[in-house]
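Training component of the fellowship. As part of building independent skills, the fellow (R.M.) carried out the full modelling exercise for a liganded target. The chosen ligand was flavin-adenine dinucleotide. The inputs are recorded below so that the supervisory panel can assess the work.
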Amino acid sequence: MSYDTIVIGTGPGGYVCAIRTAQLGQKVAVVEKRKTHGGTCLNVGCIPSKALLHASHRFEEAGHAFAGMGISVAAPKLDLKQMLAFKQEGIDGNTKGVEFLLKKNKIDAFNGTGRILAPGKVEVKAEDGTVQTLETKNIVIATGSDVAQLPGVTIDEKVVVSSTGALELSKVPGKLVVVGAGVIGLELGSVWRRLGAEVTVVEFLDRILPGMDGEVAKNFQRMLAKQGFAFKLGSKVTKVETGADGAKVTVEPAAGGAADVIEADIVLVAIGRVPYTKGLGLDDVGIETDKRGRIVVDAHFQTKVPGIYAIGDVIAGPMLAHKAEDEGVAVAEIIAGKAGHVNYDVIPGVVYTFPEVAAVGKTEEELKEAGIAYSVGKFPFTANGRAKVNQETDGFVKVLADATTDKVLGVHVIGAEAGEMIHEAAVLMEFGGSSEDLARTCHAHPTRSEAVKEAAMAVEKRAIHM
Ligand code: FAD
Ligand code: NAI
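Fellow's submitted model of the complex:
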């Protein structure tokens, strides 16, 4: 069988790329080894984690948040089996949606493991061992990423789990130790804490959420601690011993020193993810990878081999679904002879905890390091009418603007619905807007988004409600 483009992997990068390529008139096939489409994100990542975050937030809210509004509810009871079924329904709805879209766009889908035999030749090996070879003009590798392993610690997905196991626990752990205070650790730590677990997070660095703005991370840590999270920062896990009744986790200061042992029912290892290229045959065709195993591509997402491209988690850049999707669209357009492009300066990032943390553009630390003079405008939700009336006043908005030109370089939000609010900043930054532009844009009242406008006004010290 012969195609214009074959995409290997149908995660957010691959399936979006395939659809855009088909929209542009090409004959397209996808190869996916999982039974369902949607990749990590839809099957064991973004979607299931957000389903559990949503359900566990509702559970916690029902437990305490309504009485003050004059609504009394009986103490909520957890039916974990049903909550996991609710999560599965969310996954199925989304993966079936992708299957429908692939069919609608007349994309041939092959179930099996793809291997590149040569430029223009992809072998597909099905689970039953059947092998077929497909011919194509272009190949797009979108094989994503896998869990990073902690040296000396075996993930058995029972007692020592990765994010995948942590989305499937059959009972709420009494004590959960999370290794890594990154996005996964804090999101899934939140889920199980809300459902009743005692959560201790062990982090190698002396801060949580590396890469996020330092002030935001510090405030966020304080909020999580108030919710009951315990943090052991500047610490490393050196050993995990598992037994019939859980695990003993040995923790040492990162710089060395006396070890401490923490008992846990479940240990979640969330220390990052690594590119997944196993069995693709990269070496045989001469595709280069870097020291971290990421496929090296040029500005047009093309590997060292003409006609073979790569996108998403398997190449450099933030490991985010929307980054993969945008690269999928860009490479499809490039292959079709158009001008596909991704603006890496404006990729939002969101941590879907409560409160949420959202950011786009540079942090204060990055601006300092680059020697860029900047102004800061900050506005707290305690001074925002809607946040006050809803009694959700934790957090603030911070706008960072170039001190000379006033161009907005970064926006950081911590607070309820931060993940929705960040996009007006993204659009502004995409158009190279200034804090003045944001400050002069009329915002509906009463909304939490008014805090974004006021933070922009605060850049020139003219916020009204502060
Ligand atoms: P993937 O989604 O990993 O898809 C790759 C696909 O390729 C897989 O289906 C795999 O089976 C298939 N494949 C691999 N090798 C082969 C082969 N040889 N042949 C055939 N098929 C193959 N990102 C966000 O932006 N927001 C979130 O809220 C978010 N939450 C997350 C929560 C968790 C718990 C995790 C683990 C990740 C989360 N992410 C989130 C990250 C997000 O899932 C990834 O950035 C995204 O899935 C990357 O997309 P991709 O298309 O590059 O790869
Ligand atoms: P991460 O890179 O976000 O965080 C890993 C954390 O582990 C870091 O703080 C790091 O310093 C720490 N760490 C590393 N080695 C350690 C060690 N030996 N001991 C203790 N701490 C150690 O990685 P995470 O949370 O696993 O997530 C993986 C990827 O998935 C991320 O790149 C993220 O972008 C993506 N993701 C995105 C989400 C979102 O957008 N909401 C949600 C979940 C995941």
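The panel noted the following from the submitted structure. The longest helix spans residues 80-104. Residues 150, 179-185, 187, 202-205, 210, 236-237, 270-273, 318-320, 349-352 surround NAI (ligand 2) (CB under 6 Å).
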